[in-house]
Amino acid sequence: MRHWWILLLPGLAGSLPAAEQTRAFTENERRHLVQRLGEAGLEQESIAALRLEERLLYPRALEMNLHHRDASKFYESFRTEKVRRQLADFLVEYGTLLAEAEQREGVPPEIIGAILMIESRLGKNRGKWPVTDLLLSLQLMALPEVVEANVSRAVEKAAERGETLSEEEARRKVARRAERRGNWSRSELLSLLRQFDSAEWHSLRGSWAGALGNCQFIPTSRENYAVDGDGDGRIDLAGMPDAIHSVAHYLARHGWGRKPQAKVIRSYNHSDAYVEAVLELAQAVKS
To answer: What's the pLDDT tens digit per position in 69-93?
Structure first.
């Protein structure tokens, strides 16, 4: 167990595709998951339906969730003329839907479109991580062996940013983030299980952070803010009608038209670089 977690450190973890960094949960890990989920109020029948003996652990996801920091350079790829043309074409193609969303929620089409572009390249990159397995994996972040295996990585990441971090400081920092992120992932998993039938739990795909669909809603955002945009009686965020209306509804519920635009967009992603990229792209296609 202890040696296996060394895969989380630089080298192996950074060089292999996510699909190759998997294994079954050990018996001790399954017991840990059953205990955590039971403490959260999940019925034993639902825990059994998760089929933990068939689920896979994704160590790369643990590393990414423990050490990820939003990189401003990521958003540079959305400042190209090609991206602006693609978004402009999208605004024309889905003009009717976007106009309906604006009329209902007050959010301009170019803002909705810019968010969809940055979140999923207008639906072309929704993520391929098995979301149920991923959220189960993240429940293990606070285990002592996982924290210890990530101390060196935290020191290295700090050095890359020009910061000095002792091993003890790194250990405390990793442990705090692991505890917070582990609790967060449990809430997200419970939300996911409430929204989908057990038959769907094992086929859902999304981002390394557990976000779903064209608009990349985490499960709790989907549960609280997603809407049926085309009136077919179901919510499908992989379809543009529901994704477009859900983005508009999310922003409206967070104060669009009442609060500064940047503050509302930041509620979607807590990154100043993200907010700047959305507003800049929206302004570019509007102009």
So the answer is: 767 788 999 999 999 999 999 999 9
User: Angle at the Cα of 22 (from 21 to 23), degrees rounded to 5?
Assistant: 140
As its CATH architecture, domain 73-126+212-286 has Orthogonal Bundle (1.10)
List, in order, residues 6 or more apart from 167 with CB less than 8 Å away. 151, 152, 155
- pTM above threshold 0.85: yes
**Residue 63 banded pLDDT, cuts 50, 70, 90:** confident
**For the chain, domain boundaries:** 4-68+130-205, 73-126+212-286
The long-range contacts involving 12-21, CB below 8 angstroms and separated by at least 24 positions, are 13/59, 13/60, 13/63, 16/60, 18/58, 18/60, 18/61, 18/128, 18/129, 18/208, 21/58, 21/59, 21/60
Q: What is the pLDDT of residue 70?
A: 66
- The single-letter code of the amino acid at 248 is A
